[in-house]
Structures are given as structure tokens and as C-alpha cells.
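stage 2 :: seqdesign
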């Protein structure tokens, strides 16, 4: 069970890193902090608002942060990691659905979170957005399974290891 928990935690960290890549890439390219901050500021400010009051970058940063918190909690064996994961999933799903509906310019320029049209993906019968959300939901189910503690019945006097 520890191996499954480790693999699922790595998958969640990997997805959070992929989601945060547009913000992290200037630092990895060797740009100075001022250049990286200006790029990140342009990404965050270029897109307007979702639903008329919520900047797109808040959902984006919230989803990345909650996914990382969930991975850390899962790695520590905390069964409440599923709560953090599914809160991040909700933020990510709202952002993706708003992007598809045309909820804001920032959402359209959000880098790797932008999904291509089904025609561009080789004629898939299902919209790729729903495939991604389904995969993320299945990863959440794995977080729930890996986060559960196996309770063993102990005999009287047996040490708790």
C-alpha cells in the first residue's frame, strides 16, 4: 500500500508541475527574477476575469497549490489528502470548463491547460476535456484508496508498529 501511495503522490506532483509549467519555465530557462516576474505577471494579467469577478490565475494557482498539498498529505499518510485533492480538482474543472465556454482571455492563454478541438485530435468521438477530467477523477479515486489506512486487529499486549 505504501508503494501505491508513493506512486499516486508522484503522479499528483507531476500533474501539478505540468499545470504550473507556464509559471515555472522562466526560472528554469535561466531568466533573472525580474524577467520571470514580468512574464508571470503578463500571464496572470492578460486574461481578464472568469464569471465577471474571479481572475483566472486564482483558480489556476489554487488548483496547483491544492494538488501539491494533497500530494504532501498523501505522502505523509494522511487520509484527508482526498479532500485537498478534490478541492483542487474542482478548481481545475471550473477553470477548464470556463476555458471551453470562453470564460476569459487568460483562460485561453493558460498554456498547457488549453485543450485542442476534437477534430485536431484525430477525430476522437469524445471531447478531450471530458477525457482529461475523467482521468483526473480516477486519479482522485486512487488518492482515496491510497490514503485509507488498513486497520488490523491487534491482540492484547501487541505493540503498535
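stage 2 :: out
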Amino acid at each position: 500500500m505504501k508503494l501505491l501511495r508513493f506512486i499516486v503522490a508522484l503522479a499528483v506532483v507531476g500533474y501539478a508541475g505540468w499545470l504550473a509549467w507556464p509559471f515555472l519555465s522562466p526560472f528554469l530557462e535561466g531568466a533573472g527574477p525580474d524577467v520571470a516576474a514580468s512574464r508571470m505577471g503578463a500571464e496572470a494579467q492578460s486574461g481578464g476575469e472568469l464569471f465577471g469577478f474571479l481572475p483566472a490565475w486564482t483558480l489556476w494557482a489554487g488548483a496547483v497549490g491544492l494538488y501539491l498539498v494533497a500530494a504532501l498529505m498523501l505522502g505523509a499518510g494522511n487520509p484527508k489528502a482526498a479532500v485537498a485533492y478534490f478541492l483542487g480538482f474542482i478548481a481545475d474543472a471550473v477553470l477548464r470548463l470556463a476555458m471551453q465556454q470562453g470564460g476569459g482571455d487568460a483562460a485561453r492563454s493558460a498554456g498547457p491547460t488549453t485543450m485542442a478541438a476534437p477534430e485536431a485530435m484525430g477525430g476522437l468521438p469524445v471531447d478531450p476535456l471530458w477525457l482529461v477530467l475523467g482521468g483526473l477523477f480516477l486519479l482522485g479515486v486512487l488518492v482515496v484508496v491510497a490514503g485509507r489506512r488498513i486497520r488490523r486487529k491487534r491482540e492484547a499486549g501487541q505493540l503498535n508498529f
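stage 3 :: structure notes
- Residues 103-111 have pLDDT under 50 and may be disordered.
- The longest strand covers residues 49-50.
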